[in-house]
Design goal:
The chain is an all-alpha fold. Helix content is 66%, strand content 0%. It has 16 helices and no strands. Bound molecules: fe (ii) ion (2 copies).
Length: 289
């Protein structure tokens, strides 16, 4: 291990198959990082990609957002959903699309991971709304949840057959977690790989750090990490998608997360109620293909 905790011999570009970052994503991320994105710029970027445009419109029209009138244009979708949420969705859809291309037999598993990721995004946003009224922060929580496991798509791309079977294998309580199996087979886990790729692709530093820390119990004091941990736990508990792990956090771990976030028993029940109700909507409307 080197000073940053990564195996000294591991080099992401040599050992993992990394698709080059799509141009549209570079521009969206640059705008996100510089905080200069305007609705008009975002609309132009999305409209250059017909497949992305179609997906954003489908999401905007989904029952999940339940708007009264039909959303027909990207600019209308941005007005209704907000610039940050549309930006996050555009980033997430683009990344998963990039990795899913050519992955025939693993496509169903990657779709399960996408559903899980969307659920963690939606739930992290909901958790953050209990803590803060800042729209910008709650939408950043959505992006963090959406991309927390994105290191896993790199493993799918590089080792499709083998990683597919590791991901899909039944795991009992006493078995290793998916992170443990990744370390055993590849020397690194998806949190490390996700952070490395996030840095390589120029993601905001806070997002790259969150991806690295999302399973680390010593980081539970960082509120955004705790929010994503709780959202991850709820997505698993209500079986919204699948992220390669059946195991839930222990009750003690969850109590600690709740206490760090100052979430009351009543709020916890509200979150569980929300997760159980949104389960069907998320599965149905966040389809990637
Ligand atoms: Fe994870
Ligand atoms: Fe996860």
């Amino acid at each position: 291990m080197n000073a940053s905790g990564q195996p000294a011999s591991f080099q992401i570009d040599k050992e993992l198959e990394i698709p080059s970052i799509p141009l549209v994503l570079i521009k969206i991320i640059q705008a996100l990082d510089q905080d200069t994105s305007t609705a008009k710029q975002l609309e132009e970027l999305i409209m250059h990609d017909p497949a992305l445009s179609a997906r954003i419109l489908r999401l905007a029209n989904s029952a999940f957002y339940s708007f009264r009138s039909r959303v027909k244009t990207i600019s209308h979708a941005i007005t209704l959903l907000g610039i940050n949420l549309v930006t996050s969705l555009a980033i997430g859809i683009n990344i998963f699309d990039t990795f899913i291309k050519g992955a025939k037999s693993e496509a169903a598993l990657i779709n399960q991971l996408w559903t899980h990721s969307c659920a963690v995004g939606v739930l992290a946003r909901k958790v953050w709304m209990l803590k803060s009224s800042s729209q910008k922060e709650t939408e950043f929580a959505f992006l963090c949840g959406l991309l927390h496991d994105f290191g896993k798509v790199v493993f799918f791309k590089t080792y499709p057959g083998k990683y597919g079977s590791i991901f899909a294998s039944e795991k009992t309580e006493s078995d290793k977690t998916i992170s443990g199996l990744e370390e055993e087979n590849y020397g690194v886990d998806h949190a490390v790989v996700g952070e490395m790729l996030a840095k390589q692709w120029g993601f905001p530093r806070e997002l790259a750090g969150l991806i690295r820390k999302h399973h680390d119990p010593s980081e539970v004091g960082t509120p955004m990490v705790a929010a994503v941990m709780l959202a991850d736990h709820l997505a698993k508990r209500f079986e919204i998608g699948y992220d390669g792990d059946h195991g839930l956090n222990s009750p003690v771990e969850i109590e600690e997360v709740l206490s760090k976030l100052s979430i009351s028993e009543e709020q916890r029940e509200q979150l569980e109620e929300f997760a159980s109700q949104e389960c069907v909507n998320i599965k149905q409307f966040y389809r990637i293909s």
